[in-house]
């Protein structure tokens, strides 16, 4: 991991809405606001971790960046090129520099193709290698991801989950990309294998000067691999900061609740720290709450939170948060109830 002032990816007010149709004539009656106004930057050579509950829009954000989903609104800049405005062929060529590693190592590999054909497919599609050059490049990539090059004529079902994910990584690396979206690449793997894959990501980043958007659920793993961390809730980013800053000094009530749920093998830790339990369910992205998105589950919410959406502002250098009460300590529901009754 390394820090660099050069911005490689810049996302501006990204929105991805999926229409809802009903009736025989397929009339649109609404839309799922999967991503609803997200902005952030990723610097060259760094890893930005993206965390949040299931359904908050993390994967949709990643897929929109690589243009697997067409954004409803907003801009996505790779260096100085707006990917949203690119036509089909220019975007196809741009994918040599932008790749994606998918969550499920079982579903993302074609079971009818050999490893050689899977890893070589991008090379063939772009006409970069031919004949024996392809075999040599595939073997080089297999060695790069710590797999035996002699396995290139085997099929995916002959490999374990961790090995399949390494094959997916090799395929993503085949075109020498600058930026890779890692969509929960370790969540489907055994815990004993997860650390190996994360270490591989770090080694590849140092060796090839890669830039990652690392989407994950495991907050402890995100802290290990990321330079900065962005927290998503219901289609928006509620907090963004350096990894140590956000773990040691979280400002948004949702971030505090997430971090309080991280298991720590220390009984003294549990005696000193109170677990923050969020009440209620995540609202529907079809009809999100007015004002602050988190107000229906927030112990600090009041009338101000209903009136308008908070500004995503910089509280301190490099630490951004979208909350009216960001400077206040998180208090429990019981404490607030007692205060209101006085």
Structural commentary:
This protein has 342 residues and is an alpha/beta fold. The chain has an eight-stranded mixed β-sheet with strand order 6-7-8-3-9-10-12-11, sandwiched between helices. It has a four-stranded antiparallel β-sheet with strand order 2-1-4-5. α3 (115-126) packs across α4, α3 (115-126) packs parallel to α5 and α4 (132-144) packs across α5 (161-173). It has helices at 58-65, 88-94, 115-126, 132-144, 161-173, 191-208, 219-225, 243-248, 253-260, 267-272, 303-307, 333-341; strands at 7-22, 27-43, 47-51, 73-78, 81-82, 98-101, 179-183, 211-215, 228-233, 236-242, 312-316, 319-322. It has one domain: P-loop containing nucleotide triphosphate hydrolases (Rossmann fold, 3-Layer(aba) Sandwich). Helices cover 33% and strands 24% of the residues. The N and C termini lie far apart (51 Å). The chain is built from twelve helices and twelve strands. The model is unreliable at 330-342 (pLDDT under 50). The chain is globular and about 70 Å long.
Number of discrete helical segments: 12
Our estimate of the beta-strand percent is: 15-25%
CATH topology description: Rossmann fold
Going by CATH, the homologous superfamily would be P-loop containing nucleotide triphosphate hydrolases
Low-pLDDT sequence parts: 330-342
Label the overall shape: globular
Radius of gyration: 22 Å
Q: How many angstroms separate the termini?
A: 51 Å
Secondary structure: number of strands: 12
Strand order of the largest sheet: 6-7-8-3-9-10-12-11
CATH architecture descriptor: 3-Layer(aba) Sandwich
The CATH class turns out to be Alpha Beta
Output the structural class: alpha/beta
